[in-house]
Amino acid sequence: MQELIIHEVGPRDGLQVEKQPVPFEHKVAWVESLGAAGVDIIQLGSFVNPEKVPQMADTDRLFAHFSAPGKRPGKAVLSGLVLNERGLERGMACGVEMFCMGVSASETHSRKNTGMSPHEALARIIPMATQAMAAGKKVQVSVQSAFGCGFEGPIPTDRVLGLVKQYLAAGVSAISLADTAGHANPMQVEELFGAIRALDPNVEMTAHFHNTYGLGLANCWAALRSGVRSLESAFGGLGGCPFTKQPAGNVSTEDLVHSLQRMGLRRDIDLGKLLEVARAVGAFFGRELPGFVLKSGSIVDYKPAGN
Amino acid sequence: MQELIIHEVGPRDGLQVEKQPVPFEHKVAWVESLGAAGVDIIQLGSFVNPEKVPQMADTDRLFAHFSAPGKRPGKAVLSGLVLNERGLERGMACGVEMFCMGVSASETHSRKNTGMSPHEALARIIPMATQAMAAGKKVQVSVQSAFGCGFEGPIPTDRVLGLVKQYLAAGVSAISLADTAGHANPMQVEELFGAIRALDPNVEMTAHFHNTYGLGLANCWAALRSGVRSLESAFGGLGGCPFTKQPAGNVSTEDLVHSLQRMGLRRDIDLGKLLEVARAVGAFFGRELPGFVLKSGSIVDYKPAGN
Fold it and tell me: Residue B85 is part of which domain span?
């Protein structure tokens, strides 16, 4: 079984729905701990209009901070989400190493999220991806709402694969399927990623799940079995897209790493540190976060406890 | 993909840890609804000392009620948990149709739960199983703490398979592995059930998971992939063995059925009725139960909701 890449999206997808502004210094401390824990990629923020999403207003400053010499959090690659050309320009200027960008497979979700149809969004994303790759940046493109949409219901597989084919034709080989609404089930995950692998066995496949119906880790396991090499997750299980119906948290990074380590994978990551971050985030917001291991405690290295 | 049997253990494993006594009439109403929903087997209770577990004191009365002519809840088979010869005798007298009995693979858990070592417990269980089968009863034997123990840590696979072999040698072909402490991971689930199938491809395999670390449904999916034909779950995700360390709820029946129906399986079960039962149980105890679909709502038959 391959060793999965952990892409921590807590600072972006975890925080973007939170109304209480997180001070820059807190974000820096959390990201430093995530880096020290050994996650592979950290998504520091998204380049959106700060008036629309004030929580993301310090994204440029975070990249400037962490891309300065000697400031890298552990060995983590710094990823950022961009939605348009303006965002790409900002990201190029402040030190983004990996650009994430995507198109929703749901017409309704796409319009709510970006004001464009999937077709229009794709026509803008492809040149942005090409431009970022030409500048030597890592680029990952995604299909959002790939497994279903709270507004539109089931999303036809062909529509998802159609977008994937256009990504591949444009020369992007890192592709993420995002389960924005949490609708995915393990059988569907295996089918959809299997279909992508059938298109091109060299695609670097990433999955992004939300735990709306309790299937987050089940879908991660199905993805792992299907050849997915990277998973996106958020500290504490925080998060949820504000433009979907029935938003719910991301798969929790601690729960994901805990389950991998129970299977003997990614034992190099410091789970204790991940739990510290999640506890700090929970303390900041003053509420219990959805993660399971936060409540139950780790049993990765459990010792007989006496009777 | 085979269609799984749903064995509802809420009235037993779900309620046994609850201090607030549930009146007989409430249990009857909940079981009637579970039957109407179409679950296949309902575990009405356990035959334990009522002084030790007052919540189970009306088990004999429940069996007498539901085994009377015309009283069967839907098409459900009536199962009961027995721990010793006295329990078997009581069960024989009141209408149990399927006897569940087991041995813990953990020495410590076994002693806390039954006062016996696994070896001693097995020596008592085998004759009980033989006697019940000779009386024409369905018998399912289990290995508890099969995937790990909060007291002892990992449980060697050979110890679990050793118990399974002795069950098979005694002629019992319905075997359950119970993840009493919630330690199972999907890789282990596939390995362990795969090893049992390699011993005897005709074993009727059942799995029983707790959601302590968020892996309940992931383990169910792994079990389904491994040829398991029956899953045990509890309404609302209630439950937890009082004699384990760090008890946590069973896999929620509604969440399990919801995920199966999303995969096109068991569409014959009335998920709305299962949700009604879980809501009624939550209202009785006056708290939010762990189930996800209870909070998020079903998307099995979701319609585009307008924008």
Answer: 5-296
Task: Respond yes or no: is residue A100 known to be catalytic.
Answer: no
Min distance A38 CA to chain B CA atoms (Å): 21
Q: And the tokens for A67? A: 């891309």
From chain A residues 65-94, the ones with a CB under 8 A of any chain B CB are: none
Decide if B186 touches A, using CB distance below 8 A: yes
- Per residue in A232-281, pLDDT tens? 999 999 997 666 666 689 999 999 999 999 999 999 999 999 999 999 99
Number of structural domains found in chain B? 1
Report how far residue B264's alpha carbon sits from residue A126's, in angstroms, rounded to the nearest whole number.
36
DSSP letter for A242, please: T
Lowest mean pLDDT among A88-102, A130-144, A171-185, A245-259: A245-259
What is the ipTM metric for this complex? 0.94
Burial class (CB in 10 A: 0-12, 13-18, 19+), A290: buried
Q: What are B234-257's pLDDT values in tens digits? A: 999 999 766 666 668 999 999 999
SS3 of chain A: helix, strand, coil, percent, to 5 = 45, 15, 40
C-alpha closest to that of A16 among A57, A61, A67: A57
Cβ-Cβ contacts under 8 Å between A and B: the total is 119
**Confidence grade of residue A9 (pLDDT, cut at 50, 70, 90):** very high
- B291 CB neighbours in chain A (<8 A) are 214
Residue in the structure block whose two tokens are 């992007």: A172
Per the domain annotation, does B123 fall within a domain?
yes
The residues of B annotated with a catalytic role in the active site are 241
CATH number at residue A13: 3.20.20.70
Residue B214: what residue type?
A: G
Residues in chain B: 307
Choose among B262, B291, B303: nearest Cβ to A185. B262
